[in-house]
Amino acid sequence: xxxxxxxxxxxxxxxxxxxxxxxxxxxxxxxxxxxxxxxxxxxxxxxxxxxxxxxxxxxxxxxxxxxxxxxxxxxxxxxxxxxxxxxxxxxxxxxxx
Length: 97
What we know:
60% of the residues lie in helices and 0% in strands. It has 97 residues and is mainly alpha-helical.
């Protein structure tokens, strides 16, 4: 029995799957936090700023900065993310879709 596999899309989208599982919002929030943490760490590296210098710019402790850069820590405030972005000469942009 040789079944031909239909080319193109197979099944629904990953977003649809997550919605069916009831984890779409949580998964999306985690992904956004991880991306922002990665972008912030990359901007620091690109600018040659270490964690101690960054913590001083943000007027916070290094442990607070570590929480900000931790991709798994979802307890970071928008204000903290905005201050960190500003310290790197960037802006934090959020939008509703």
